[in-house]
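re: ur msg from earlier - yeah i can do the guanosine-5'-diphosphate complex, just paste it... oh wait u already did. ok heres what im feeding in:
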Amino acid sequence: MAYSQIDSDGGIDYMFKIVLIGDSGVGKSQLLHRFVKNEFNLKSKSTIGVEFLTKTIVMDHKIVKAQIWDTAGQERYQAITTAYYRGAIGALLAYDITKRRSFDHVEKWLEELRMHADKNIAIMLVGNKSDLTAREVPTEFAKEFAEQQDLFFIETSALNSSNVESAFHGLLSQVYENVIKKHI
Ligand code: GDP
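and the outut:
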């Protein structure tokens, strides 16, 4: 699908609410900052604490504003509010490829989505920190899981920018198709 980024915030055709979910420390905030601002904050410990960032893009000659929500650390206290999910039509569910536990929790996050979000929400499963070598989650393993669960899947590194654009673009394209086909 034709895709480009624009700076204008003028008239928009679509507004997509996207949520970031996944365990604390997997790199959600860094993925968001890399995608929206092309930044990686080396000093950040965990979660920078913004509510959401927006990025305006052109898809299929339409101006789409993606409003991408970050948990701002709520997940540490098991307290993601239902408001966080309200109106979301896409989710980027991240785990850390070097933390098996964060992958084991993906099912819990899927349940949470099923409970609180639209049933046709598009989901991109993202294995982040692919720049690290201490891998605990094999790519094939995650890929197979994603296929079984009908999720899109990609491995990324917010640190070195690998596949971050592809992860968000892939998700936004799917959201766009769902919206066009009125599945959501
Ligand atoms: P969040 O709690 O899921 O929002 O995670 P953060 O974005 O705050 O990141 C948690 C920690 O992981 C921080 O120390 C980041 O610098 C680090 N981090 C995030 N993404 C990457 C990555 O792609 N590679 C590496 N090596 N570290 C990362």
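cool cool. Residues 17 and 87 are 7 Å apart (CA to CA). ping me if u need the other ligands too
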